[in-house]
Predict the structure of Acryloyl-CoA reductase.
Amino acid sequence: MVKALVVEKDEESGKTRAAVKEIGLEDLPEGEVTVAVEYSTLNYKDGLCIGPGGGLVRKYPHVPGIDFAGTVESSDDDRYAPGDKVVLTGWRVGEAHWGGYATRARVKADWLVPLPDGLTTRQAMAVGTAGFTAMLAVMALEDHGVTPGEHPVLVTGASGGVGSVATAILANLGHKVACVTGRPESADYLKSLGATEIVPREELAETTKRPLESERWSGCVDAVGGPMLARVLGQICYGGSVAAVGLAGGADLPAKVIPFLLRGVNLLGIDSVMQPYDNRLRAWQRIAKDLPMEKLDAMVEPATLEDLPKLGADILKGQVRGRVVVNVA
Ligand code: NDP
């Protein structure tokens, strides 16, 4: 039997309900590789898929969990054999395909990545989709010439999963890191991850008519989007870049093009879901090398499948700090 968090939908009321249940191995979707899941995690999208669906879930009943790490149990694909340790993020697993909130997951071999050397399955999920995406954002900034120097890199939504991991990686690479947070009580936590400056959310929440302000940030990892991203674009140093990762503050971008034209600012889109395999390997290798594991440990809140309905609602309200690691086994 497989223990899983199953979300069901009442077709009449349209309401969803998540509960831990036992299902059969034969109920799992088709795929070449069956993985004994050890750890999964909680991301913003998981909050949507555990709860209202957010237009992401195709059909019910559904097993959410957009990422997992574990051990291959059986494989019809030559690339994987029983006993191999693997990680999965993206490919709409946990949304369109059943995901990692179950003791077994069956997936396409193409979606898996071998567990990187130097990481345990628990550490890989402490990183999870949020941390993997933070690394992609840092790599994009580097590819566009953002190097450690006088001006800090700004991280928005800093207490969240993407923000926490981005802060720890950037600080470890020698950047000054300015963290935007709406939670003043997170200041010590963010400094422990390497933040050199805390920027209250209100400071960047106000809109301004000025398309350019003083040059403050060499780059930015942005998990918030919306009016804050528009404001930040006008504060980026000449030739700097913003990696747009998320939309915790809204999907609209009420911005002017002036920072692009007069300061050569770059707005870089970051997608973790459909990343090609080679770049996935590169990002995981960089995580193993550039993310200090003691800082990763400080971000982790442990959880079980039973905790997820409440935690899923919390993350949608912006009330989860750092990374939730779900011990599935
Ligand atoms: P979290 O909920 O863990 O973090 C988001 C953080 O944003 C919060 O902790 C909070 O930080 C801040 N925040 C929340 N609401 C607001 C608001 N209204 N205005 C300003 N700041 C706000 O989510 P994740 O870190 O997992 O994900 C962050 C974003 O990135 C999400 O939108 C997610 O969908 C997206 N994402 C995108 C991926 C991609 O492939 N592009 C992959 C993974 C995530 P604080 O309290 O410190 O202010």
